[in-house]
């Protein structure tokens, strides 16, 4: 079999690359070992696919080279993808913070991509895998050994995604191919992932499982204001998923339980307005009673507030200042993360050093391309990872 381009991975970036190249008249084959197209798209966004973000820009991405993503993101923007969604009359809405979701189901996005691929003459073969890749200098093409037989192609695109959610078809093939052609890998770790906490912490907070609150969470110079969710194994919710991408084992994380107000001013006002009120009771006005009680009976706050029973007028001004600081910078140390089985993305991956940010072609091997999450480019939570997949897929599709 002979193709102009073979794309490994029928996920977000692979399909976008395929339909773009197919549109240009290229003979394209997409191979995937999974039994369905776009499995991660199907489960994304709680089944409604948060397919892009209105405010997507390079600052929303982590990479050893923060400039690498700029070119593709500017050449295929969130509005370009939105135009495709509108062309297919897929109903959508902005949920929050510019996050665009399907109104109905994620399969709308998969069906749209499949239809575009079909119209561009792209062949997609599922339950197909690749065992060997060789570049021939004589024919200037790749020879692939696959379960479909031997395939020759001029361009080979690696769109195999990251390691998260192994049950959805994730594999390390893309990283192995990168190494085979002399690319180095940036250390990989789960990103956008819940934290686990130690036994002592859990013994106290497990009863809050299911409780959420609006917070600012900070680690290693990054902060996010979103909600935190207590789980039976630790902490999750958008704020935690976001900060997890900046966290490394052993780092402490800081939480502001009362964002948007000056806590010290609030406490000083209470000295006038509710001098005899117990601290736990005034905190319950701002948070839920269960959360306020749990916070007041743990760690430094327990000592400072006599388990929440200390009346406001019994705090000296320095004590109130310390109390404000404790609520504003409530420190916790995650025991770890839930790992790849619950991570939305993989941080790190194929180093961008020897890859063109314009074409996504390897500078080590002509005709070889890496796109999407397999690269060392990881977005924040909120549709940014799909936008990267669309943008890198589109740009590479112009050159293969
Ligand atoms: P993707 O993972 O989409 O595709 C890779 C493909 O390669 C898969 O089809 C896989 O089967 C195939 N493959 C892998 N190894 C292979 C091998 N050895 N042989 C053949 N085929 C192979 N992002 C976002 O922006 N908004 C959201 O709402 C969500 N929600 C979300 C929820 C959950 C639960 C997860 C796990 C992830 C998200 N994401 C997300 C992240 C998003 O899904 C992810 O970043 C993109 O799908 C990455 O696109 P890629 O094309 O790079 O990989």
UniProtKB/TrEMBL annotation:
InterPro entries, per database record: BaiN-like, BaiN-like_dom_sf, FAD/NAD-bd_sf, RsdA/BaiN/AoA(So)-like_dom, RsdA/BaiN/AoA(So)_Rossmann
Domain RsdA/BaiN/AoA(So)-like insert: 189-345
Domain of life: Bacteria
Cofactor names: FAD
Keyword set, alphabetical order: FAD, Flavoprotein
Entry keyword annotation includes Plastid: no
UniProt feature coiled coil, ranges: none
Residues annotated as domain RsdA/BaiN/AoA(So)-like Rossmann fold-like: 4-397
Protein name: Membrane protein
Gene source species: Endozoicomonas elysicola
């Amino acid at each position: 079999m002979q193709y102009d381009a073979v794309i490994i991975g029928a996920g977000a970036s692979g399909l976008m690359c395929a339909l773009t190249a197919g549109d240009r008249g290229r003979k394209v084959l997409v191979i995937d070992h999974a039994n369905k197209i776009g499995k991660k798209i199907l489960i994304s966004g709680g089944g409604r696919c948060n397919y892009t973000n209105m405010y997507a820009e390079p600052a929303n991405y982590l990479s050893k080279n923060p400039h690498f993503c700029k070119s593709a993101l500017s050449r295929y923007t969130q509005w370009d993808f939105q135009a495709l969604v509108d062309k297919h009359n897929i109903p959508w809405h902005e949920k929050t913070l510019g996050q665009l979701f399907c109104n109905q189901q994620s399969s709308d996005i998969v069906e749209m991509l499949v239809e575009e691929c079909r119209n561009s003459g792209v062949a997609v073969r599922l339950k197909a895998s690749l065992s060997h890749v060789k570049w021939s200098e004589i024919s200037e093409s790749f020879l692939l050994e696959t379960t479909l037989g031997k395939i020759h192609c001029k361009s080979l695109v690696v769109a195999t995604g990251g390691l998260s959610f192994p049950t959805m078809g994730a594999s390390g093939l893309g990283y192995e191919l990168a190494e085979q052609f002399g690319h180095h890998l940036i250390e990989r770790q789960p990103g956008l992932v819940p934290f686990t906490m130690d036994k002592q912490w859990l013994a106290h907070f497990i009863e809050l499982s299911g409780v959420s609150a609006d917070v600012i969470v900070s680690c290693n110079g990054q902060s996010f204001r979103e909600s935190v969710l207590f789980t039976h194994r630790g902490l999750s919710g958008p704020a935690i998923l976001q900060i997890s991408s900046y966290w490394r084992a052993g780092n402490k994380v800081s939480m502001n339980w009362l964002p948007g107000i000056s806590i010290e001013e609030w406490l000083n006002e209470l000295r006038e307005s509710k001098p005899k009120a117990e601290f736990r009771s005034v905190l319950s006005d701002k948070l839920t009673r269960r959360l306020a009680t749990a916070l007041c009976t743990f760690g430094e706050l327990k000592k400072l507030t006599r388990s929440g029973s200390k009346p406001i007028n019994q705090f000296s001004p320095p004590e109130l200042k310390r109390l404000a600081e404790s609520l504003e910078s409530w420190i916790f140390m995650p025991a770890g993360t839930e790992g790849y089985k619950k991570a939305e993305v993989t941080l790190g991956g194929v180093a961008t050093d020897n890859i063109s940010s314009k074409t996504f072609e390897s500078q080590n091997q002509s005709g070889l391309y890496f796109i999407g999450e397999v690269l060392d480019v990881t977005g924040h939570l909120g549709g940014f990872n799909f936008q990267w997949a669309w943008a890198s897929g589109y740009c590479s599709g112009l050159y293969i």
